[in-house]
Amino acid sequence: xxxxxxxxxILILAMxxxxxxxxxxxxxxxxxxxxxxxxxxxxxxxxxxxxxxSATSRIWKEHSFDKMLTLGAAKVTNPEIMRVxxxxxxxxxxxxxxxxxxxSTAGDLLSVFGSGKGRKEAGAFLNPTDFSITPNxxxxxCDPPQGKLTHFQPDGxxxxxxxxxxxxxVVVLGDSLVTMAxxxxxxxxxxxNLSGTQLRSFGExxxxxxxxxxxxxxxxxxxxxxxxxxxxxxxSVIAAYNAEGVPRFIAHTIDGNALPKVLHVDGRVKVKPNSxxxxxxxxxxxxxxxxxxxTRVDNGKGGQVMDVYDKRNGQYVYSLRLPLPCRDAVxxxxxxxxxxxxxxxxxxxxxxx
Length: 353
Prior knowledge:
7% of the residues lie in helices and 42% in strands. By secondary structure, the protein is mainly β. Strand 26 (335-340) and strand 27 (343-351) form a beta hairpin.
């Protein structure tokens, strides 16, 4: 009797092993812990959804580029973030020493902001993620690991504002600061006064977006109208707001990339690796919004694509081919400044006849 029971038990175990193996193969069972999963974000619907572009493919306009400025390894060892002031001076965060370096239009080093790496000293950074320049040369710098927003006077004097959560994008609009932080409510943008008091929160793109984390990562830049423009890196969306949070437009980019999936791993949220990026950087000049796309020309061997939109309504106008691949680009007057593996380069550009 015992021998028959032993044979039955072996048979049951064998059948169970086969069933479990098949379940793994077809996806009913997973080896991942219960708190590891992925979700598919979705845009808000109806009149709150981003507007589609009327154009369905790119319109190319040829431009000539004359190199006017080069900031190579001798001046910035590891450039990470670049901004251009109204004066045309170029500010670069050098990751090699975590200092922000200010250069003239001719490429001469004029001043340095920050005291390098550290936790306690005013002006010392751990992981600065963005900075904004005021018309009179003041700097506001985000440093999420320290929970600080550091304010530099033009002479380099620093004062840190303790912020209640890790802000990672900032732009100064007159007497207020527009910031971005991982959303804990529906709003991704927050407005503070210059003393650090929160005034308002707004900006909603996705359903249940407070659970999407870095899905809403992107860049914000001020424009001449006193408002700001947002470019969603993973959303492939551009949006313009005034300082009160009223949107001028919310539109898809010409790429119209599908939303990537979001991974939830051990309580952390991140975008699925190798997802397409729609927006690398944004800048405004006059009536136009210049968006650096993640698209490369000539089957990935040539320079980067910059798409131009009407700043009033977000509608696509045309595209141009930059001379080099880059991960950041800022248009200022008749110049475009690119940041890539070769450092920072300033180009005078004009449309070819």
